[in-house]
Amino acid sequence: AGLTILSWSGYDIPEMAPDFFKAHGKPAFTLMGSDEEGFQKVAAGFRPDLAHHTSFIVGKLRDAGLIQPIDVSRLTHWNDFFPELRSIEMTDGKVWIAPCSWGNSSVIYRADLVKPTEDSWGVLWDEQLKGKISARDAVEGLLITAGLYGEAVDPWDMTDAELARAKELLLRQKPLVKFYWSSQTALEQSLASGEVTAAYGWNASVALLRKQGIDMAMLRPKEGIVTWTDGLVLFKDRPGSEDLAYEFINAYMTPEVGKFLIDSYGYGSGNEKAYALVKPERLKELGIEEPAKILATSRFQKQINPEIRQKYQAIFDEVKFAG
Prior knowledge:
The structure is a single chain. It contains 13 helices and 14 strands. By secondary structure, it is α/β, with parallel strands linked by helices. The strands form two sheets. Strands 1, 2, 3, 4, 7, 8, 9, 10, 11, 12, 13 and 14 form a twelve-stranded mixed sheet that branches. Helix 1 links the parallel strand 1 (4-7) and strand 2. Helix 5 packs across helix 6 and helix 6 packs parallel to helix 13. The mean pLDDT is 94.
């Protein structure tokens, strides 16, 4: 029997684990559209050996007793990974995710049309850009940016006073917003046409538009850039062998896979050795030529606990449906 892996579209290909595919062929992949969907599948009884998850869901999987710690002594490339990623989901001295890649959410903008006066989330509140701003149509996007801009101590766990401030900021932002985006493609098209010139967005959009010859850039806001990181978790009750699971994890963590991630998907690799394999101009256009510096000043995305999330959602709805 081979391995069963829960993953994302685009991560179920030989380029993501070349050594494993060469030795054993393709594992049995089941694809998910979100971390929450993956969690629900496993909670309902689906049993994979490994899953590729974003770090913020790891605590939920661990608390539900579904995953086991990673034995880092079995990871060939562990010491080549950035320290921030090695410690991202560490509790009681145990590691719960084998890191893979990372990416950012920040202000992305048309560098030929917008000249930010400062590196701040405040660009999305700039009166001069009225009608040219797009914010993300998601609690994660909208409330977190308002929390960061409003200097909340922890944007993923705001106090009532901080939430009131975030709401006031979002109501002030609303008349400046052309649209709240939910489709990445729709956002990219509006940036390409110049209909929108500054938005909440991701590395992949900057990479794609630059490939089309559009002068895009990503800010590193002084309030902190939002960083997500992902990797593989190992399930407790699993069908396949543990040796095979570790073999797959090791194949996933190589510098060569890191190079593929950077070149093809525009994300940052967790493996420091990957960067030397990528052309310097590629790193520069993705804004990741100094990965260690970015990770050292990142605000890592976190799970929002359910009762706080309800409060965020209520504000989100009020802002969206405000006259």
